[in-house]
Amino acid sequence: MRHFTWLNLILIVVGVTAFLPGQPPELAPPGTVQLTQKIFFPEIDYLNRVAANGEFLETFDGNSPSTPQPWEPKNWDITVHSRNRDLLYSLTPMNAGHGPNCEPPPLTHLISGYEDAVYLCRNHMMTAINDDGYGVIYLTPDHMVDFTNQEAVIRFDMSTGRTSTRDWVDIWITPYSDHLQLPLAAFLPDLSGEPRNSIKVEMGVFNGNTTFSGQVVRDFKTEPLKVGGFLGYEEVFVPSFMQRETFELRISRTHLKFGMPKYDLWWIDTDISALNFTQGVVQFGHHSYNPTKDCSGCGPNTWHWDNFSIYPSVPFTIIGAEQRYANPAVPTVNFTTPSQVGSYLRFAAIGKQIEVSFDGGATWQTAETQAQLRYEEGAFWSYWTPIPPGITQVMFRGQSWWGGEWHARDISFWSPDVGAQAGAGATSSAGATPSASVVSPFDSPADLCSDTPIE
Questions:
Q1: 407, burial (CB in 10 Å: exposed 0-12, middle 13-18, buried 19+)
Q2: Which of 51, 54, 92, 323 would bridge with 333, disulfide CB 3.0–4.6 Å?
Q3: Over the Cα atoms of the chain, what is R_g?
Q4: Strand 143-146 relative to strand 313-320, pairing
Q5: d(Cα 429, Cα 11) in Å, to the nearest integer?
Q6: Distance CA 352, CA 379 (A)
Q7: For residue 169, what are the β-bridge partners?
Q8: SS in 3 state form for the chain?
Q9: Residue 258 CA to chain centroid, in angstroms?
Q10: Is residue 432 very low, low, confident or very high in pLDDT (cuts 50, 70, 90)?
Q11: pTM attached to this predicted model
Q12: Contact, 99 vs 93, CB < 8 A?
């Protein structure tokens, strides 16, 4: 949700150089580090500039239901995963942020359904998941970040309050042809590891405070990024479940930078060897790994999100199935929009010998998986199968695995927009030449801070 007042503009015009009154972020207690905060510039509002250039922007403006409502967008893929085989059809109950009538935190409402894990209230979106094994939500917009010819910027606003260090967020940037529906660090006890090529920025903890780190994956080999500092955001301001702060990832083929521009707080700001891709699918993750473990009073968190932007960006098409899952009892899913030329059937599934039919069961073919680091029978795999154009129904079948019957979920068609994906796939890095110059999409994006949103 965007905010703007004429008072902001008047004060800036007359040369005010301090934060405007109203709802400034609460500063950290005495004795902690205070970083210089940037003044807002609504006359060159970042989000308006992104929109004016026709790039990807999701502000949730106008989405203010009277009760928490599941978010069911047409232009995003939403994948909700639980490792627990007893949670295929419902999630572990939790008290999620916002009251039953969308009252702001600390009020909560009880959720237990997959469709309840991503929801809307008060002009922004929330994710909430509680899993004592491993659970994750991935949000994927239908635009890739494009840093082919210039530095690209990914921005989003997010709450900063935390209820457990075992509940965290991350961002993945992966070539279209390499991306996994369910990427995850290989050392964690679930799924199939990292994609073949990717970038990841991940929330972590240092000395009890929240920091971020990053990595580049090249042909399944992980390279940790140099960290620019270990200052936690709790040392700069008091975290809030109600107030959302701006986070920014800046990316070129040879440099990555991530942090909070308003506070000039950057955890990553480093040169890298030239990447072998110049466009990437963007996935925002929310992880839950037994959030109550080893911590008195800890529990699952609700993350509040708003104002996603990607500049420059390249569109592609996502067509979601009408049904969330398929299994032996309900093996057929339908689509209101037919598959397009160049489409892939994308889904996550557990089980053996998963097959699909595009002609009502007359013929069957083995469902193809995306290239993955490991293939363990007891984990969901990421599938990526070519599909002819014009398909509106897909049938599934498979064999049971050692823990139960086969199960496929979060099913969709993906296809590139014609002419939009030059450079989208990974290419050989041998002899690769980085862009001659990094051109910022705006005059000074680090200074173009949107107003801090409040519940």
A1: buried
A2: 323
A3: 22
A4: antiparallel
A5: 50
A6: 11
A7: 286
A8: CCCCCHHHHHHHHCCCCCCCCCCCCCECCCCCCCCCCCCCCHHHCHHHHHHHCCCEEECCCCCCCCCCEECCCCCEEEEEEECCHHHCCCCCCEEEECCCCCCCCCCEEEECCHHHCEEEECCEEEEECCCCCCEEEEEEECEEEECCCCCEEEEEEEECCCCCCCEEEEEEEECCCCCCCCCCCCCCCCCCCCCCCEEEEEEEEECCEEEEEEEEEECCEEEECCCCCCCCHHHCECCCCCEEEEEEEEECCCEEEEEEHHHCEEEEEEECCCCCCCEEEEEEEEEECCCCCCCCCCCCCEEEEEEEEEECEEEEEEEECCCCEECCCCCEEECCCCCCCCCEEEEEEECEEEEEECCCCCCCEECCECCCCCCCCCCCEEEEEECCCCCCEEEEEEECECCECCEEEEEEEEEECCCCCCCCCCCCCCCCCCCCCCCCCCCCHHHCCCCCCEC
A9: 15
A10: very low
A11: 0.86
A12: no
Give the sign of the dihedral formed by CA 238, CA 240, CA 242, CA 247: positive
pLDDT for the residue 452:
53
Confidence of residue 170 (pLDDT cuts 50, 70, 90): very high
Token pair 């308003």 is found at 262
For residue 376 the two structure tokens come to 């363990």
- Give residue-wise pLDDT tens across range 29-86: 444 444 444 444 443 477 788 888 889 999 999 989 999 999 999 999 999 999 999 9
Q: Residue 426 corresponds to which tokens in the numbers above?
A: 């990974």
For residue 142, the cross-strand partners are none
> Which pLDDT does position 23 carry in this prediction?
37
Q: Burial letters for 220-258: b for 16+ Cβ neighbours within 10 Å, e otherwise?
A: bebeebebbeebbbbbbbebbbbbbbbbbbbbbbbbbbb
